[in-house]
Fold this sequence. Notes:
Elements: H1 4-26, H2 44-57, H3 59-67, H4 77-88, H5 92-110, E1 121-124, E2 127-130, H6 134-148, H7 160-176, E3 182-186, E4 191-194, E5 199-203, H8 205-214, E6 221-222
Helix pairs in contact: 1-5, 1-6, 2-4, 2-5, 2-6, 6-7, 7-8
Amino acid sequence: MINPARLTSDLSRLRRETDMFLATIESLADREMTEPTLCEGWDRAHVIAHIASNGNALVKLIDWAVTGEPAELYASPEAREQEIDELAALPKEELIQKVRDSADYFEEQCERLKGEIKTEELDLHGKPVPATSIPAVRVAEVVVHHHDLDTTWTIEEADPDSLLNAVEAAVRTMRAKNAPGMTLRTEERDEWVIGDGGQEITSDREGMLAWLARGDDEHIESQGELPELPKW
Length: 232
């Protein structure tokens, strides 16, 4: 089981990040919903639709953790894309309500993690994720995709621990996709080793996330030329 105090803290941060995400999307005009984002191939409506869909899908990880029965988030990549496309086509207010509903559903289902955990480590698209980190996975999704919307909101506004969750999620992706060997260090004294850890790269959490997630190297320092990162 997850320590109840930790779960309460994680869900409190998730609520904060979700409320800021909702405030941002509620401020968008209808015409702004179709503007491009930092997430290649998706406009804002698609990014928002992904957050709505993801809140429901991640409940499958909770099911897996508490029942011991493996579960896929989506029936197939095509089913995932179709669901996101259908949500993105909804009128703005309906789409925003879908985000609210999925956020509430995910938080409600997280209460099940206070009980017995039958599967301690789960598989998320080839990435090992501890059952105790399921709420943090959702925090990372909200923070990264809030950044993707490319509005006046910046990742510096996220809670420091939420930024940590997001960088950790990005590191898991880099490891799963066999990124070049790197040792990542932040000004906040975090450290991650990817592969053989050969190249030292430093930044603060915000800069590290912007680079790992979307290739923005403005605030990255390195001993040599930065490696090419795999696409998400």
